[in-house]
Amino acid sequence: MLQGINKVGMHEWEVPVGYIPDMRVSGRLFLSDELGVTLEEGAARQLANVATLPGIIGHAFGMPDIHWGYGFPIGGVAAFSEEEGVISPGGVGFDINCGVRLITTPLRLRDLGDRESIIQKLYESVPTGVGSKGAFRLSGSALDDILALGSTWAIKEGYGIAEDAVRCEEGGFMKEAFPDGVSEKARKRGIPQCGTLGSGNHFLELQVVSDIRDEETAKTFGIEEGTVCCMIHCGSRGLGHQVCTDHLKSLEKASTRYGIKLSDRQLACAPLTSPEGNAYFGAMAAAANYAWANRQIITHQVRILFESAFGIAYKEMPLIYDVAHNVAKWEEHTVNEKLQRVCVHRKGATRAFGPGRPELPDIYRKTGQPVIIPGSMGTASYLLAGTETAMMKTFGSTCHGAGRVSSRKDAKKSVRGAAISSELKKRGIIVKAPSGDAIAEEAPEMYKSSDEVVRVVHEAGLSRIVVQLMPLGVIKG
Amino acid sequence: MSFEELEHTADVRIRVLAKSREELFISAANAMFGILYPGECSIRSEKIVLVDGENAEELLWEFLSELLFISEVESFVVCETTVQFTKGGLTGLIRGEPFERNRHGGGREIKGVSYSGLFIRQEGAEFNCEIIFDI
């Protein structure tokens, strides 16, 4: 472990006040000894930087998948008080409401037939990669509705069933969205891209439920061993990226105007009570709604394809849940034994609300919310449940994935996309992507082990493992 | 006129070296389009870009963000860029062709140009800067 970081519990480390100057609170990292070795100095410093921001409550948190990002580390969580706190695009990211959803099917491996053929069909149905456009051409007024209503718009238009929205965080849309705050440029980028995956680490993966670790919760979640599921990972596309771009400059200027001393300019921010902070929040929420509509439309495309390919009904492919892992939200949490409204930033981190939370749909009220953690390409993904411990320790937050260990530059140097593809194919996993580099950058060895990351959050109590899923085939951007 | 990729875990960080401010801006644009469209490119049409900025860094950031925007919404692959500085801004000329998936696909999408990580330094007659592309 890096010098100056102290062990304070099993898998729990303290980045003490004084690690860098001006820290208002300490940092808390959740890492096993094994993952501790991979902690980058830059990521630890970024966590300490977050701890210097005004109005931060409790600690700045780093999840086991922590790595060096922009502003916040990826895998970073921080909650801010309504009166004194700030909002920062560096705590949300360019890809606003990048997130993951999981859909179950009644299919078993033998029903899939030729795996290559279904992956090819998915690749043809769901647009991926640079320059891809959606099959749905939206009008300007439809885009306004998407920005205000998120996945509930898509469902009303026939791209889903009512239950889908209930099974998204926030019911599929943030009510604080302010569509008029989304610039003309962002709209222009958003109109052709609804229903597209994008590139980078975004993917659509077919998986099989390989191991059930908690029978009763799995039953509540409606997931059975040996069945085929579909995981979708994408975000708000160019619209969200533009919303972030549009506000970076105004928030940097706001930091100066409000006299906020920044230990890193990448943490440019504005008070939650300021006009600049409010403008960003409203536009960010609208972009988050676009992301929910985007994932909903892709879900629809998959269901339509599966209906015709396998003769199963649309409603036999329910959504288990949809989680956002790049967003800032208003939530109520217990702080010093009092219920308090706080703004929680999760940057590459997942909400993991425990049992009893009123925000959860009735079916998950007893179990805690489903938490979906994708593995890296070719490795296991997990479905977990939120916990009371997460509510008490991390403002109801957990990890979001495996977490990078190597740079994209190293990836291209050390591995070739074609070699990875053929290696995965030997293991029965089909990969479709527009280029070898796209595969090389996302190679499993570029990531921490998802098994280890998930073991740590399970043992630290931040969420509990319910089901393990293994990949069958993946399409990438 | 050159650029190199530096270490960064999540994103693409580049360093650009140039003999003039014009070259610096052109190389930065070339680096960005090299990430987006690694394949071939032929000049079939051109577009003009006008941007303003309060200082050199802001101008470069505005320029790259504008190019990214135009390239995405107009499906335009850029193979050549020239710039001319004006009072308080610049005029850019970009040349290229419409995007075709089979010829230009397979690159990496750039989500945005990081504003705060961007610095331009002048050492003697040489200019250099570091830019983080969020991908």
Break the fold down into its secondary structure elements and pairings.
The complex is a heterodimer of chains A (477) and B (135).
Chain A: E1 6-9, E2 12-15, E3 27-30, H1 33-36, H2 41-50, E4 56-67, E5 74-81, E6 86-87, E7 99-108, H3 109-112, H4 115-125, H5 140-149, H6 151-156, H7 162-166, H8 184-190, E8 203-212, H9 215-221, E9 227-234, H10 237-257, E10 270-271, H11 275-310, E11 319-324, E12 326-335, E13 338-347, E14 350-351, E15 370-373, E16 381-386, H12 388-393, E17 397-398, H13 408-414, H14 417-426, E18 430-432, H15 436-441, H16 450-459, E19 463-476
Parallel strand pairs in A: 3-4, 18-19
Antiparallel strand pairs in A: 1-2, 2-3, 4-5, 5-13, 6-10, 7-9, 7-11, 8-9, 8-19, 12-13, 14-17, 15-16, 16-19
Chain B: E1 2-6, E2 12-18, H1 21-36, E3 45-52, H2 56-73, E4 76-86, E5 89-98, H3 101-104, E6 112-113, E7 119-123, E8 126-134
Antiparallel strand pairs in B: 1-2, 2-8, 3-5, 4-5, 6-8, 7-8
Helix pairs in contact in B: 1-2
Q: How is this structure best described in words?
A:
The complex is a heterodimer of chains A (477) and B (135). By secondary structure, chain A is α+β, with helices and mostly antiparallel strands. In chain A, helix 5 (140-149) packs across helix 11 and helix 10 (237-257) runs antiparallel to helix 11. In chain A, 61% of the residues are buried. Chain A is built from 16 helices and 19 strands. Chain A has a single domain (6-405, 447-476), classed as Alpha-Beta Complex (tRNA-splicing ligase RtcB). Chain A starts with 5 loop residues before the first strand and ends with a strand. Chain B is of the alpha+beta class. Chain B has a single domain, classed as Archease, Possible Chaperone, Chain: A, domain 1, CATH 3.55.10. Chain B is built from 3 helices and 8 strands, in the order ββαβαββαβββ. Chain B has helices at 21-36, 56-73, 101-104, and strands spanning 2-6, 12-18, 45-52, 76-86, 89-98, 112-113, 119-123, 126-134. In chain B, strands 1, 2, 6, 7 and 8 form a 5-stranded antiparallel sheet that branches. Chain B has a 3-stranded antiparallel sheet with strand order 3-5-4. At the A-B interface, helix 8, helix 10, helix 13 and helix 15 of A face helix 2 and strand 6 of B.
